[in-house]
Amino acid sequence: MAYVAARGGEAAILQSEQLHQLLNAPLSLATVRMIEASLPYLVDRVMGEGSLYAPELAALALAQTGGDLYEAVLLLRAYRSTQPRLAYAEPVTQTELLTVRRISASFKDIPGGQILGPSLDYSHRLLRLDLLDQDNQAHSASAPPAATVSSDAPVDEVPPSYDPSPLAVADWQRSEGLLAAVPEVPLTDPASLPDLTREPADFPAPRAHRLQALARADTGGVLALGYASMRGYGLAHPTVNELRLAYADVRLRHPVTGEAFSIGRVRVSQCEVVDTQATELRLGYTATLGWNEVKCIAGAMLDLEMDAPQPHPAHSEEFVLYHTEPVEASGFCIHYKLPHYVTFQSGLDALRDARATAADTPTEPGDAQ
Amino acid sequence: MQAHELLDILTRAPADAVKRFAEDLLPRLEPVEVLRNRTGLAMLPFRETAQASTFYLGEILLAEAHVRVAGVEGYAACLGRDLEQALALALIDAAHRAGIAGPAIADFARTQAADLAETDEALMRAVGQTRVDLETF
Description:
The structure holds two protein chains of two kinds. Chain A is an alpha+beta fold.
């Protein structure tokens, strides 16, 4: 495909940007702080797809774009490209997570118990219209309370067995002989892992590439393909083995002492699904930065599908990983809005030539039948 | 208190409190040589539970600082892009390992650790109360 440069319209472009800002709320620090504090799941989604954990910047990206998710993700990825890579953190393992939600839809009685954590799963999906009916002035005068964690319940009411780092359900299944043991792989040198941001995906992709691609994939894209699998286009019919929301410490090596220390905690989510229809239990897996359950569940199902010998074409590894990359997909889509006058003119010329040729060609007897 | 334990605590402590503490400490640390103070990224490797492989979950924005105080190097990094917070943490790290203001640093760290532990315990209490015992019919 050939492109040509176009000129002109500078004043209109500037006016267009100003009109965009005029029709959105004024961009201010207060707006950014409000988004970060009150819309954490949206911020998480932008960070997950942007593949950059930076809540403040994700909130800024959302404010700056008026909440256009793909533009916000693009802003975050663009910012990321300006920053040097300084370090490789220590690998995060399951046992180090501070887990706040952990459920299994496959096994009722899992070691450590079913922990609902922060969830609206069993809540009524009813709009709180009473909030809108409050006096507007009083409503705007009362700032929302700062997000704090508190519990009025006395300590002795806490289940004494609650462990913030419960055993993975898969590990429990392995100990029960339900799942094949996985070989003990020594912790890989963090800098030596295959990295999609440094090398393009090749198919079949190394598992590290596949899981990294799913971690930064578009939630809507993963859901669409995963849902197709769930509806019956797929070969697997799994259930959720374990879904987990947690905090993970990011640990770096101190350059002077060589000891690892935490630079803070980030929100992570992960999901395993288990296929019971096969001759043996098979697991699918996806994890992402931030708390995003839908993406992890759908991604884990696609992980299973991609391993099938002859998956549906829309569930092949290449199809899934290429078409769920949010910046490439949205970028390609929105490029169609940009001037294609030469391309279209060329097509139009070809169409006119074809018509002229058809008009000049004498009709053979019987052609009209 | 080990150096890494100190950083474990102070990187999660409120940034303003850490900056104020470092500011108070500064007169005892002069001259300070700032070797590096910048923002950048760290890759976060993650171990999956299905096949026990490791992959990059994504990148983390961080601020880091590397300083030299009384011939001792200090280093720290924190989440986000707050260069002053990273610098304050690195100064405290250098002071701690140089044996400067040891008791004050230990007291400050203990106070912050207690606050963080209280927040974690409150969170865990709240999480523990969402444990559900399901019955099938």
